[in-house]
Write a structure and sequence with these properties.
The complex is a heterodimer of chains A (181) and B (474). Chain A has 181 residues and is an alpha+beta fold. Chain A contains five helices and four strands. The longest helix of chain B is centred in the middle third of the chain and has 34 residues, at 159-192. The relative contact order of chain B is 0.17. Classes of the chains: A alpha+beta (181), B mainly alpha (474). At the A-B interface, α1, β2, α3 and α4 of A face α1, α6, α8 and α16 of B.
């Protein structure tokens, strides 16, 4: 590889519709590329298979947060109304677990929701302020009606001419090289 | 033999000849166009009402809850009624976005953003009332488990504290759910807006979203988990609100039917409010092709179902009062229907039980004007339901010598009126600056989004609707 291609981020190409994006993604996947990504204005049904995406780890993150919410909530209430300052309220037991259920439930849901949202952004590497792909004017369509595929130069199989040819063969248009500025 | 049934194909979600680009333009152009003059006028009115709210809260804090019409024994008046009413309205949003999502009801995509926004603002309006009702608002932090100078902690056995946790969790989770849905649409706006400031603002809100399918993969998972979490949450919130009443020993409140009955009522009023707003907004912004008459019909069916459930609960309450043979319980229900607040009771029955029954007629539930009318009637009825529950049980309590009549004062009314200002202000800001329809989700629900609707050459070729013949096994 030349020194010039080191600064190259990847090669971006556009296709017409979701079906073509799935087709080209599975072709690129079959071609042995691993560092590539597809972009669409909405999630496309079946893209996980075409790109051989692994099952999302998010469920485990949420489970962890949910358990933390439950145990954390229980310990908090236990500390406050049993250990630290027990209050005798109409002779009810201090360890009045049935009455804690609503709050424990709410705290479990709250923490799980935090896990789901922040975990999702964490797994996606977001938020980030900029990305090389935003240098492409055409790429603005990715949030409107454009369907894109980008093969990154970091892929061990990456070769500029071969990638160009592969994308062209599968009917991609507007092929452009993306440089980080 | 003739056909035994008629096959009814699912109506198209988006009417008109739209593609992805035209949907983007139809929805987000509203945010990109210059602000319409009428918007400023309505916004101004909302701001005035918001000022009324702030002024009446200020006066309340200065003077104390004595400015309200509360008396002993009616220590819960309009403030609690308004609280329950607004929270109830706030149930439609999460129901639409979570429960209908789990049931794969794709028609929700046209209204979920909108209903979620309504939810958040309604819960904000609701949250004000219990907070200012405590009297000494400067020690409101006592409801949170934070250390204070008395070294005491909140009472975790109290339904009022459960309420604090339920409402604040609901508000937080609804907001997160709403925001997650908004991120791809913020990215759309970021890529379309011309102004530098707008680019920066929407760019920050979009968090660098670029529509990557590796991201969508986690995103869809997160969305599904959130829907799964929000479904029991939305049911729990009004359940816990009903515990405020049901866990007490007041006749007419101490019933096990309260949680499901409150949840049904909440969905009922929430859908009515969504319809009220939606019918106005789709007309003004010309979104009839997305928020179609089919949507109105489907929502009217939900109103009919939940309205009938509420009616059934009213009947059941009477039955159990009679069947349970507790003198006070029997007396309170007879007083509800015939006592000093009988007028409120019959308004409630008329608005909540009778008015939705019109929707058995297909013609009426597809009639926009009529739906608009009923949606307002329903919310009036639901306000009176809370009025009847709160006031009748308190004003005629166990001891006839302490019976009295409760009427609100001007300040009760102004505070309530003011919350419409708060709601309106936020809702108008939402309509102006955020995409009021979930663009990405709507596109994903269009037939063009499904790769199966393309042929092998990659041309759009939707499947022919195959109408099955009825099977005859005899």
């Amino acid at each position: 590889m030349s020194t010039e291609s080191k600064s190259l981020y990847g090669i971006l190409a556009e296709v017409k519709n979701p079906k073509k994006l799935i087709d080209i993604a599975s072709a690129v996947e079959r071609g042995g590329y691993r560092k590539f990504d597809t972009f669409s204005p909405f999630p496309i049904h079946g893209m996980d298979k075409a790109m051989s995406l692994k099952k999302s780890k998010l469920g485990w993150i949420v489970l962890g947060h949910g358990i933390a919410g439950l145990i954390g909530g229980f310990s908090m209430i236990y500390f406050m109304s049993v250990a630290d300052y027990p209050l005798n309220i109409s002779g009810k037991p201090f360890m009045n677990i049935p009455a804690w259920v609503p709050i424990l439930f709410e705290l479990t849901v709250l923490l799980s929701a935090f896990g789901a949202v922040f975990g999702m952004f964490f797994l996606n590497g977001l938020p980030r302020l900029n990305h090389p792909l935003f240098n492409s004017e055409n790429f603005k369509k990715a949030t409107d009606n454009g369907f894109f595929i980008c093969i990154e130069s970091e892929d061990p199989k990456f070769d500029r001419t071969e990638v160009q040819k592969l994308l062209e063969d599968h009917g991609a248009e507007n092929i452009e090289e993306i440089y980080p500025d | 033999m003739s056909k035994t049934y008629e096959y009814v194909p699912e109506p198209a979600l988006v009417k008109g000849n739209h593609d992805f680009g035209s949907i983007t333009r139809l929805v987000t152009d509203i945010n990109l166009r210059p602000t319409p003059k009428a918007w400023y006028i309505v916004f101004g009115i909302s701001n005035l009402l918001l000022f009324v709210l702030l002024a009446s809260i200020g006066y309340l804090i200065w003077q104390g809850t004595g400015i309200w019409g509360l008396n002993s024994t009616v220590n819960w008046g309009w403030a609690i009624i308004n609280f329950v009413w607004w929270v109830g309205i706030g149930h439609a949003g999460t129901l639409i976005s979570a429960i209908l999502f789990l049931f794969r009801q794709n028609w929700r995509t046209a209204i979920n953003r909108f209903a979620e926004a309504m939810t958040i603002f309604a819960v904000m309006c609701a949250g004000i009332f219990p907070a200012i009702h405590v009297g000494r608002i400067w020690v409101i932090y006592w409801v949170f488990p934070v250390p204070n100078s008395m070294a005491m902690w909140p009472n975790f056995n109290s339904p009022l504290l459960w309420d604090v946790f339920a409402i604040s969790t609901y508000l937080t989770v609804s907001f997160l759910f709403w925001y997650v849905g908004l991120v791809p649409d913020f990215a759309t706006l970021r890529d379309r807006i011309k102004s530098k400031f707008g680019k920066i603002a929407y760019g920050i809100a979009a968090l660098g979203w670029r529509g990557s399918n590796r991201h969508w993969w986690n995103y869809e998972k997160a969305y599904m988990i959130l829907a799964g979490l929000a479904t029991p949450l939305v049911l729990s919130v009004h359940t816990i609100v009903s515990f405020d009443f049901a866990v007490s020993v007041i006749p007419g409140w101490h019933t096990t039917i309260f949680p499901p009955y409150f949840v049904a009522g909440a969905v009922f009023s929430g859908f009515a409010m969504v319809l009220t707003l939606m019918i106005i907004v789709r007309k003004i912004y010309g979104l009839e092709e997305i928020m179609t008459d089919d949507h109105i019909e489907k929502m009217n069916i939900i109103i009919l179902v939940t309205g009938s459930m509420v009616g059934f609960a009213y009947l059941m309450e009477f039955f159990i009062a009679w069947y349970g043979q507790v003198e006070y319980e029997k007396a309170i229900f007879i007083l509800r229907a015939t006592g000093p607040y009988a007028w409120a009771y019959w308004i409630m029955i008329t608005c909540n039980v009778l008015s939705p029954q019109f929707f058995w007629s297909k013609k009426l539930r597809r009639h926009v004007g009529f739906t608009f009318f009923i949606s307002i009637v329903v919310n009036i009825g639901m306000w009176f339901e809370r009025f009847v529950i709160t006031v009748t049980s308190l004003s005629t309590d166990f001891l006839p010598s302490s019976w009295g009549y409760y009427s609100p004062t001007m300040w009760d009314m102004l505070t309530y009126l003011g919350t419409f200002g708060l709601f309106g202000t936020f809702f108008l800001l939402f309509l102006r600056f955020l995409p009021m329809i979930a663009v990405a989700e709507l596109k994903g629900a269009m037939p063009q989004a499904d790769p199966h609707n393309y042929n092998d050459e990659g041309e759009y070729a939707p499947h022919e609707e195959i109408i099955p013949e009825p099977k005859r096994s005899y």
